[in-house]
Amino acid sequence: MNLNLLFVDDDDDLRTNLIKIFDGREISGHRISASGASTFQEGKKLVSINDYDIIVLDLYEGKPEEGKEKLGIDVLKEIQSLAFIPVIFYSGLTKDLTDMESEIVGVVNKGGGVKQLSDELSRIIRSNIALIKRKINDHIRVTLRDYFWKTVHEHKSVIEPIKNDVSIGYLLLRHLAHSLSKENIKSLLGDVKIREGRAHPMEFYIYPTNTKEEFEAGEILLKNDAFYTILTPSCDFIAEDSRKRKVGSVLLSIGIPLEKTEQFSRFQSNPGKHEDDLLRLIESRKGDRFFFLPGTPFIKNIVLDFQYTTMVNYEELNTFQRIAKLDTPFAQSMVTSFIRYYNRIGYPDIDAKYVVERLKPEK
Question: Given a cut of 80, is residue 58 above it in pLDDT?
Fold first, then answer.
């Protein structure tokens, strides 16, 4: 894949040299197409009309000095207002940028030379950050193209009755959402580590929670370092027009850290003997009593044990931190497991051996 790289730097010699070094160069399997902007103003204009994959951005106009206006920050704000593009600040004075570093904003001092800049470019490319936008844009472009020409156009007799309706939009957007299936997402990301038919931990969640939206079943909350998950059905939270919100008290499942479970303790003491027990718990195949929530940067490895629940008033939910939501179908699966666990009706096992013995042919 070709990646478009923009250098924004008013040092003509340096900018020209960087373009010469990186244009046509291959980094982590991707060819770089490099261009430049000689002023911050030109950089902002180019960002507004072109689609770049990475931007290397100077911080100061002219010689870097303490107290001087950081015009590169203005370009970053312009980028943030327009699109998602990873940025690398490349400046002779970077000590004030430490707090800005993240997965999508790199900081390299010019004193480190081209080698450090190349390493930072390689980090961003290897992380897939610079590629995700291009891959998603290409996927959406192809999906829209095929849908309009192969469905809306070719099946015009079917589409004709709704041509002046928003129904086509609904069909299109549902088709687009469906096209981002689990296997298609794995293909877009180039993920070969997760086995076919299995879920990556991040697939479980919608993160972060939109705190302006109503609470839902499957929402994960945090309070006093303990995690909770809402079990009350989502429909009970809805309040519309004359319809009042049904929920008064909200049922929460209390999360237990995986490392505090018996299965984990036994695994720690003898991994070879007890690995299967831990796998059964993690894969939620230990009956309907347990449901596992995989760890991510925003949640620990948590086990929901449906024997441990608590009730809180609806108003009290505002004292919890809203962390994330379980995505469909994981939220539905969790609620279904909870219902099955408390709706089960026990009865004695049939004497299967007795039945089979009576089915055997007589000698």
Answer: yes
Would the pLDDT of 343 be above 90? no
With vertex at residue 244, the alpha carbon angle to CA 240 and CA 245, rounded to the nearest 5 degrees, is 95
Q: Based on the number of CB atoms within 10 Å of its own CB, is 238 exposed (0-12), middle (13-18) or buried (19 or more)?
A: middle
Any domain includes 174: yes
In-domain check, residue 357: no
The CATH code of the domain that includes 22 is: 3.40.50.2300
pLDDT of 288 > 70? The answer is yes
pLDDT in tens, 103-128: 899 999 998 889 999 999 999 998 88
Burial label for 179, CB within 10 Å (0-12, 13-18, 19+), is middle
φ/ψ (deg, to 5) at 352: -65, -35
Q: How confident is the model at residue 242 (pLDDT cuts 50, 70, 90)?
A: low
| β partners of residue 106 | 88
Both 24 and 123 in one domain: the answer is yes
Last residue of one domain, picked from the residues 78, 98, 127: 127
* First-residue to last-residue Cα distance in the chain: 74
pTM (two decimals): 0.71
Q: What is the CATH number of the domain that holds 324?
A: 2.30.30.110
With both helix axes pointing from N to C terminus, report the angle between 167-179 and 129-147 in degrees, rounded to the nearest 10. Answer: 140
| 185 and 223 assigned to the same domain | no
Q: What is the pLDDT of residue 194?
A: 63
Domain around 68:
2-127
Mean pLDDT calculated for residue range 267-292:
86
Cα–Cα distance measured from residue 286 to residue 256, given in angstroms and rounded to the nearest whole number: 15
